[in-house]
Amino acid sequence: MYTTQAKPFYLLDPNSPLIDAHRPSIEVTVTSPVRKLAFSVAPEVIELRDITGPQEIILALQHFPQHIEKMLGTLHFDFEMKEGSELFIPEADWKKKPRYLRWFRAMSTLEVMPFFVQDKDVRLYMLAGDYLAGGRMHVTKRETGGGRFKYELKGRTIPEFCKRLFNFCNQFMMYCHGTGFDPKEPIIEMLADYTLPVHYIDVLKQYQKDMKDYKRIYSTQESGYRFKAA
Predict the structure, then answer these.
(1) How far apart are the C-alpha atoms of 202 and 109, rounded to whole Å?
(2) What average pLDDT score do residues 81-105 get?
């Protein structure tokens, strides 16, 4: 079974000033009836691949475990036509441009990020934006009824994509370890978006096998934030 009553493995130092800095954004989001945390992203942020803002909020969130469930699927991104503009690039346009796909992929140096974004396409970009931007993977959406759909993926990168998907789910289990929140349903929901040989039971078994050997680490964004075996 999944361990909910244990000491968390924190990715962010408990004494970090980022925790209090992002408390207001988290609390406003979880108390809002809309539950939407929107980011207005300037063109320069995309060019620099600066992904610190959204990552910092999710790192800080781990220290507010009572809010993890309510923060799932809340992050939303609008892209300014120019810095400071109130005019935004249409979604259909930026989703076709490789630099945005690569920006979202860069954000996944914190591998739990896909669980906290609203748009399922953006989740996919975090997992495979580099493949899609480089033409190494092709995606179609197949309707499954009730307004739901599955992604059908084609390309030689599928085995590597499966590894990424598995690792992201594994990291989310470790992120939630000891917080009192069981990540089973969000993981199952994410895996259900694909017809791939990645299953919750295997993620759970890996967690059960490894959790005693894991330790918290504080990493730079170049190498990524992740739980690592001791």
Answers:
(1) 23
(2) 95
Q: Which of 207, 202, 198 is nearest to 172 (CA)?
A: 207
Kindly report, residue by residue over 99-137, the tens digit of the pLDDT: 999 999 999 999 999 999 999 999 999 999 999 999 999
The answer to whether residue 2 sits within a structural domain is no
Domain extent for 53: 18-224
Alpha-carbon distance of 64 to 107, in angstroms, equals 21
Q: Are 62 and 181 in contact (CB under 8 A)?
A: no
Q: List C-alpha distances in Å: 120 to 76, 138, 164, 208.
A: 11, 16, 16, 28
Higher pLDDT, 150 or 222: 150
Please indicate, yes or no, if residue 210 is contained in any of the structural domains: yes
- Report, in angstroms and rounded to the nearest whole number, the Rg of the chain calculated over CA atoms: 17
pLDDT of residue 84: 87
Residue 221's pLDDT is: 44
Give how far the C-alpha of residue 123 lies from the chain's centroid of Cα atoms, to the nearest Å.
7
Q: How far is CA 133 from CA 48, 80, 91, 150, 154, in A?
A: 17, 21, 16, 20, 14
Give domain status of residue 73, yes or no: yes
- Tally DSSP H helices, then E strands, for the chain: 10, 6
Longest dimension (CA), the chain: 50
Q: How many structural domains does the chain have? A: 1
